[in-house]
């Protein structure tokens, strides 16, 4: 349960994994995970493989992240979403503003 | 010694018996060859003194038959003969006799010959015993190896190295492979690959296969991350293997669309990502210690993500490949292998087959390999597999469930998650868990925020996202006596579930948006998508009892995604 973050060896990727439930109870943990991205303009990868539950507050947190990171990152990818989770992202049109793979 | 005397002359029998008995041997006398054969099993002689000229069956005829009866253990036969002709003596040896003694003879000569042959007999006997023991052990070992082979075979029965996008070439030095290559598709169409090389080869390292294979298949099935796999495998081997044994390993995950590789390499030669011309575009070097060495708290599970294209192929191999001996006794080496790879890929479609054939030719030329050899090619072009949905039988009882949630529950745990976790235990609802959570969570929060806590949607814009939730938390702590009631109806026959949420809140609430269709919302908008989501997933949403009750219906016959 919770949020883990890990930079790649070359500092070019920051992988944030969210396990279990993704909602406003993670709001601070999640914000901390993408703070201090450094000067390397990393690619942010949100690994949703173990995200089982999410609600609209999670969507809000993702949008918040995008807004606050702006150009300090190379891009944001949402990866490994289960089909059920992916459908929620698709219906919310997140595919237009994030790369979902 | 037990000595059988075969002679038709009573006088000789008496003379020999007397002589031999006096020096401590046991003697049994018979009159001819046939009698000798008849008593053989009973008397079990250790040495035979055989006359040549006898009625019924003479010595020359008897000797080979006695030898045959004696089987694996050497039975010394000494011919006793009055004939002194050279031909006769030669014949004695030809038919299987071991020695001869011409009458008359000095007793001391007989004694010396008996002693010498007794020693040979002893040696032969102990050799036969040892052979028997050896055979027993060898049979037992063979049986045990068959059992282990069977177990390993079963443990690997789930292995999915036979996918159309995976090619493999595996050879081992002994029956048991110290290299371990595993593949498995994950739940979202991702593909996992494990290439391992245990220290040594043969049975001992092969037993490490069992725990790794079990963990690998289980974790792949659950779609766990490469980093979690590395941590788990390391822990298992750390507990299991002796200190001087470990497993170099490469763990790879290919994303469902084939656009991304996630890698952890501990001690395996650089895995290569090559393009269609065999040129190396990425290297995945070993950045970690092999599995089974580093204690849990110091273990580094950091992975690398690589973005790849459909025309690229991942090449993974163990050091057996680069240590392959060439005709000039030099090793193939990493450079040599990379050149082999490039040349083969440039020749066209069947690059892998070409490389495999060349490696096979090297093995054949040398007649042997020194280390287990594993080579895998994983093509980065993937079609997400078509999910075949198992038809879910709604074989449950219909029910109505009332859940009352007060402040105590809200502060202590996440009531919605608890509720959905419980509902998800029913097979028919399991695959709808994520969607049901979304519906329950949105509705519950709506009721709690608006009816109970009197939060206004516009506050989100005014306060901003995080401060809205802080304010919500503050009001929650101050409000002592609220309660929210959820009444769930489940009708398995109709594949239908509905719920009504209400509260003892003061203000009836009915947002304007719910009266109309979900508006074309701006994707960038931070708020207001909750209701839109409910309306998309639910069959029906309506406010009842003048905004006191939120009623939601959900059709379970629709696929959850």
From TrEMBL, chain A:
Query: Could you tell me the superkingdom of the organism this chain comes from?
Result: Bacteria
Q: Which InterPro entries match?
A: Anti-sigma_ant, STAS_dom, STAS_dom_sf
Q: Where is the STAS domain?
A: 14-101
The record's annotation in SUPFAM superfamilies points to: SpoIIaa-like
Molecular function (Gene Ontology), one example: anti-sigma factor antagonist activity
Recorded hits in NCBIfam families, A to Z, give: ant_ant_sig
Task: Name the family.
Answer: Belongs to the anti-sigma-factor antagonist family.
Quote the protein name from its UniProt record.
Answer: Anti-sigma factor antagonist
- What is the scientific name of the source organism? Idiomarina aquatica
